[in-house]
Amino acid sequence: MNLGKRIRLQRIFSHPSGRLCSVAVDHFIGYQKGLPTGLVNVPRTLQELVAGRPDAVTMLKGMAMTAWAPYAGKVPLVISSVCFTPDDTVMELVATAEEVAQLGADAMAVAIGVRGPNEGRYLKMLCTAVEQASRLNIPVFAHIYPRSFSSSSNVTIVHDPENIMWAVRCGIECGADVIKVPFTGDAESYRQIVATCPVPLIAAGGPKCNSLEEALELLARAISAGARGATIGRNIWGERNPAGALKAFKALIHDGCTPEAALQSAGVSSGEILVGAQAPLR
């Protein structure tokens, strides 16, 4: 790994724990109708999130261009370069590596779906992004989601170990620098998957949770299995107190707190902060 890419990655993984607690607000096309409260006014949400000092924030280029200037250089920025929906109705590259570099971002995120009829196209998108980003010494975070196509109208993100293992292998073979996949729900199977991955593996923020404590418990199992952290969306910005939720996740990821201790450290209770509307991928 060359020095430029190493510097950018070390800015993102800068905490002494060696792990990552980042937040994503790049959902956009995932909501066809009705934005949830946390995404209606993204500039205000960013202000609340940055107050909680996340290790990085992931967003699309348009929001970065118009809302990130007050935080430039204060928190690492990751630009999401792909919009897609689980059923492949939308699957488009929306930012190039050159644009990511021009925005001064520390990394480029490429979200893809695997399994299904367009798997090859997605893998090509990831490979092309890795190739282009490498020329500019920009690390690529691959956000990979395996799907089940029981019918054209019933497509779901799946979390079983075999499909998560496949998603990780796809990220490895395409040359990603960091791979993000959903948690299998079982620490032992996730531990076996982490052991096969030669690059940092981080967990997606998790499925729909009924409480902050439930979201923390799921992530605690992923961290115990060796995940190098997580990128979290709705279970942070969907809360009444996003900065408090972020503080709880940081205590869990960086300080090794139990979910209960993380809530106490953040000064919130599991019932005090309720999870809002959900996106299909985070």
What features would you describe in this structure?
- There is one protein chain.
- With 282 residues, this protein is α/β, with parallel strands linked by helices.
- It has one domain: Aldolase class I (TIM Barrel, Alpha-Beta Barrel).
- The protein contains 12 helices and 11 strands.
- It has an 8-stranded parallel barrel with strand order 1-2-3-6-7-9-10-11, surrounded by 6 helices. It has a two-stranded antiparallel ribbon with strand order 4-5.
- Strand 2 (57-60), helix 4 and strand 3 (77-80) form a beta-alpha-beta unit.
- The longest helix is centred in the middle third of the chain and has 17 residues, at 119-135.
- Mean pLDDT is 92; it is low at 273-282.
Quickly list its features:
single chain; 282 residues; alpha/beta; 12 helices; disordered C terminus
The level 1 CATH classification is: Alpha Beta
Largest sheet: spatial strand order: 1-2-3-6-7-9-10-11
Averaged pLDDT: 92
N-to-C span: 30 Å
Summary, kept brief:
With 282 residues, the protein is an alpha/beta fold.
What is the topology?
Layout lengths: L2 H10 L7 E5 L12 H4 L1 H10 L5 E4 H7 L9 E4 L1 E3 L6 E3 L3 H6 L4 E8 L4 H17 L4 E12 L2 E4 L3 H14 L3 E4 L5 H9 L5 E4 L7 H13 L4 E4 L1 H4 L4 H14 L3 H8 L16
Helix pairs in contact: 9-11, 9-12, 11-12
